[in-house]
Amino acid sequence: MRCWRRCWMGEPLRIGIVGAAGRGRSFFAAFNAHPQARVHAVCDLNEEGARQAAAENRVACVFTDYDAMLDCGEIDIVVVGTPMPLHAPQAIAALERGVHVLSEVPAAVSLEECRALVAAAQRSSAQYMMAENYCYIRTNVLVREVARAGLFGTTYFGEGEYIHELKGLNEITRWRRKWQTGINGCTYPTHSLGPVLQWFGERVVSVGCFGSGHHYRDPRGDEYEQEDSIHMACRMSGGGLVNIRLDMLSNRPHNMTYYSLQGTEGCYESPRGFGDGHKVWLKGRHDDPNQWHDLGELEEEFLPEQWLRPPEEALRSGHWGGDYFVVADFLAAILGDRPPPIDIHAAMDMTVPGLVSQQSIERGSAWLDVPDSRVW
């Protein structure tokens, strides 16, 4: 209610960023570029880093205590940019105070946290959105719009891969050693799964998780609990199949993501490596069934206007403009009093399959049902 009152009075929404000395730094430019928002407070356990972020962005208030920032009465929106195990508790704390939440991914690290987060979102007058920026990468947006227009026909197979060797980063941000590579299964699924879910317009109903074995050790000589290449097979609600690959350990050149989509009337493949391009074939538009076409040929017809001619702020933001458009959509939802694109249930659709995959691989890769947060 206070957000509506502030907007009606012409005052910008006040943003608080927790984790401002780390991942949270990437959100400053997008919020401050919006005429109806400004970053008002930052919070981080690293006080020096928080003060530096505040000074660089002309932010008024600096906190090292998250509850104190929430309770100061001067925050309309909080951005949760902290390590994974803090996402759900910090989001719940904000929602309980009626503060809107934009949370980094994944939404939670356990099914119990997921249930608590959904309950808090349903009780709260505030909005929740998960900031899955890979859903906002230009090519992923274009494939989504082509799929929604029906040009792929009935989609029945897809792939999403997140391949990012992070053994060194495990030693710098040590929480990763526990929450990403210290658990077997698909511990970080949303970058690879999120866009594909939007292309299908469906949810995952069951998963079976498989690993390639253990071939690496950390600097202390301990074997990583996570198998090197994780594959999460997802049965979709429409009967189709999606394969999600997570590999944060294998020694290989950087090629962070790969996606593909197959339908009855067309298909898409993202680049496999340097020199490759985004390829599409559509039965209704391309005569030669053996000839790929450049996905970019469809931009003028299907890409939303904001992506065809993005503002300078978007071009300067992280993840190829994704960080900017996450913020733009989130603020549009709050100002328009409508659900955000990646609301609490969409966040669960992207998060819960990975948590169930951890149970699957522990049970010998058994196929397990994925609960639907809409009926919790």
Q: Per CATH, what is the topology of the largest domain?
A: Dihydrodipicolinate Reductase, domain 2
Radius of gyration, taken over Cα atoms and rounded to an integer in Å: 21 Å
**In angstroms, what separates the terminal alpha carbons?**
27 Å
Fraction of residues in H or I helices: 25-40%
Which descriptor suits the 3D outline?
Answer: globular
User: Which sequence of SSEs, written as H and E, runs from N to C?
Assistant: HEHEHEHEHEHEHEHHHEEEEEEEHHHHHE
Fourth-tier CATH superfamily name of the largest domain: Dihydrodipicolinate Reductase, domain 2
Task: Please report the total strand number as a whole number.
Answer: 15
Instruction: Give the CATH level 1 class of the largest domain.
Output: Alpha Beta
Please indicate the percent range of residues in DSSP E strands (runs of 2 or more).
Answer: 15-25%
What's the number of structural domains?
A: 2
Biggest sheet, open or closed, and with what strands and sense?
Answer: 9 strands, mixed
What structural class do you assign from the helix and strand content?
Answer: alpha/beta
Average of the residue pLDDT scores = 95
Strand order of the largest sheet: 14-13-12-11-7-10-9-8-15
> Unreliable stretches, pLDDT < 50, 5 or more residues?
none
Secondary structure tally, helices: 15
CATH architecture of the largest domain: 2-Layer Sandwich
